[in-house]
Design goal:
The protein is 22% helix and 31% strand. The protein is an alpha+beta fold. The chain has two domains: 78 residues, 2-Layer Sandwich (Gyrase A, domain 2); 126 residues, Cyclophilin. The protein starts with a strand and ends with a strand. 32% of the residues are buried.
């Protein structure tokens, strides 16, 4: 692990150089390890593709004190029970008004629309991280046949529920927002509810399979 200070109240721990399942599993285990400590000093824990960011309360601890405590507790990482990832099926309306970039994906890939949909729905994706906007899942790894570049100029508004592709990832817009991913469909599943804990339907390590409507 590569540990460094992140601003005045953060510790950043990098677990690897690549984005892959094994790194994701390691980060997920460390995330649950941190949660299991129930430390008042830790305000938030943000797992990402290759790292985990710990936001701490400077009134309760310091960078060095918290780092020393985590180093001392590190031997417990392998002993905690990590819950099995949840599996979700996400229904999607593909193409047409719901997928304005489907034609581009078809042309760029050389596939037919049905082939694009078949490939997209045949993979069980892993939630590598959640971010950008609340609840937005970065899902991988996308089949290389569906690789497409992002838009040169992002859209000002992407509708809530839009399912998009970007390079070797796929994702779902949880709210209407600007965005540069290639939109191929839309789901009516609500992925983030700020009135209902734990707020985000999808969490790091969860599995997702898209189902054509």
């Amino acid at each position: 692990m590569n540990v460094s200070r992140y601003g005045e109240d953060g510790i950043r721990i990098i677990f690897g150089d690549t984005i892959d399942i094994e790194t994701n599993k390691t980060i997920r285990r460390y995330y649950f390890f941190l949660k299991s400590l129930h430390l008042q000093e830790i305000v938030d824990i943000i797992p990402s593709f290759r790292s985990c960011l710990i936001h701490f309360d400077r009134d309760l601890t310091s960078y060095q004190a918290l780092l020393s405590l985590l180093t001392e507790k590190e031997k417990e990482v392998g002993t905690i029970d990590v819950p099995e990832p949840a599996t979700h099926e996400i229904p999607v309306l593909y193409g047409g008004e719901y997928g304005p970039d489907m034609e581009f994906v078809v042309e760029y890939s050389g596939l037919t629309k049905n082939e694009v949909i078949e490939i997209h729905t045949s993979t069980v994706y892993t939630v590598y991280t959640v971010g950008f906007i609340p609840g937005f899942p970065y899902l991988g790894t996308l089949d290389k046949r569906l690789y497409v570049p992002r838009l040169d100029t992002p859209r000002v508004k992407v509708p809530e529920g839009s399912v998009g592709l970007a390079q070797l990832q796929t994702g779902i817009y949880t709210f209407e927002s600007p965005g540069g991913w290639r939109i191929i469909g839309k789901t009516n599943i609500r992925l983030f509810d700020y009135m209902k804990a734990p707020y985000s339907l999808l969490k790091i390590g969860d599995k997702v399979r898209f189902v054509r409507i």
